Request: fold
Amino acid sequence: MTEGIGLGVGLLSLAIWVPIVAGVLILMTGGDDKSADGQRTLALIGSVLGFVVTLPLWTGFDTATAAMQFVETAQWVPAFNIHYRLGVDGISMPFILLNSFTTVLVVLAGWAVIKQRVGQYMAAFLIQSGLLNGVFAALDGVLFYVFFEAMLIPLYLIIGMWGGPNRVYAAIKFFLYTLLGSLLMLVSLIFLYFQSGGSFEILAWHRVPLTMFAQTLLFIAFFFAFAVKVPMWPVHTWLPDAHVEAPTGGSVVLAAITLKVGAYGFLRFILPILPDASREYASIIVALSLVAVVYIGLVALAQSDMKKLIAYSSIAHMGFVTLGFFLFNPLGIEGGLIQMISHGFISAAMFLCVGVMYDRVHSRQIADYGGVVNTMPRFAAFFMLFAMANAGLPGTSGFVGEFMVILGAVQVNFWWAFLAATTLIFGAAYTLWMYKRVVFGVIANPQVAEMKDIDTREFVVLGLLAICVLGMGLYPLPFTEVMHTSVDNLLAHVAHSKLAY
Reply:
């Protein structure tokens, strides 16, 4: 893999530490809810500033090179050759912007909704944002692992403290699933450290020759670590529980960003470090991905809880991502990456829409609604756009990634593409069926009759996401341009077998 070049030194550290420092400052203001207004304001300033410092990553990014850019290196633990090493390429850079942008929306979304422990709530999201940026920027194995594990803590607290009636169960289940997978990854990182002659540099591991047996064992360990995060079928069962119990902001961050960490791990670790094992076991990953697309799509049809339906929808859409990655062609991998970014926008919007209704009626059950368009026409219009995008309507971001992955699958196996394309049918079925029952029809619930349309704050949040969904759907070129060179470089590296060294 291509080595790094230093550009804009310090930007990645700012992207990581600005939101973390802002979160710590909020915690230092105390837990008195009388200071909640000041804490909200500080959270908004911190999140906006955290997003602003990431913008030069996009404007200054060189799309002509696959080398790591904005590289920063400093010694951390010299005795074990552990470094504070950061850098991004066309694969990782878009997710730092997506994460920082989502954090701003989460702060705005919880502005008037969260009444208790406001400071801790806002601080948790800001710290989580910085840690997630660290995951996408880390080029040292230990640094990656520290960020990868640390990001669990704020989300665990968010679900466990501000979630629903079964929040403790959901939080512990989420934590245990992800932690057990991560422990296998730690063993793999230590093994690679010794195999590489005492280096934790991830890019150096890309050049370490490994036997097929070693690659197989590492593949299994890394697969479990990242598959749980995606989550892939059958290790997906923690996600619906976590989504249902999490507050709206927690669901937004979980779906829009946290799930992407697992898929990102496939491209940063499994494919470049274990190319032979990746090709050998690709059919297994494809099979699991197609099960997620087809079976989980059918499971979503049977849901009566809106958040659970969207949670299962997320699993099906992420199945498209892992399918695309293991097609080993540019359309597949770029389509998977586009799907990840698009899903970040759409899933955030869908959970926010459910949150808007929940704040007014305090129910997530589809049966408790009906006729919402009569009392909330502006909201119904936004919800319609996001529902269509979730169903993969052409002209929205939801269509672009799925279409690219299907085209990539056709080049490899027609029947894979055929099964993958069923998501367009199932996605339309469960999404529009939910929308019809919630939004159209007569008002059967007195609480629905009293619902007020979205206010300015909610309009701004949903409006920003609508711009992103339509903009990416109508003009995806800027996104594919950024990742194209890095994807080609990755595929060239995977095509060259380490066993032939």
Observations:
- The chain has a mean pLDDT of 84.
- The radius of gyration is 22 Å.
- The chain is about 70% helix and 5% strand.
- Residues 330-361 form the longest helix (32 residues).
